[in-house]
Amino acid sequence: MIMVVPFALYRLTQAIGESQVAPASDDARRDWLWALAHVLLIGGTLALLLAIVKFGAAVRSVDFRYWWAFPGTVAMITALWTTLTTRGDSHAGHTPFWPAVLSMGYLLFFALFFAVSAASGQQQIDVTNTNATDWWLWGLIGVVMTSGFYALAYRLPRRSSLSRLAWNIQAFGAGILFVLLLVAVFFTQKPRPVDRPLGLGSSSSSRC
Question: Residue 6: which domain range?
Answer without folding.
Answer: 1-26+163-186
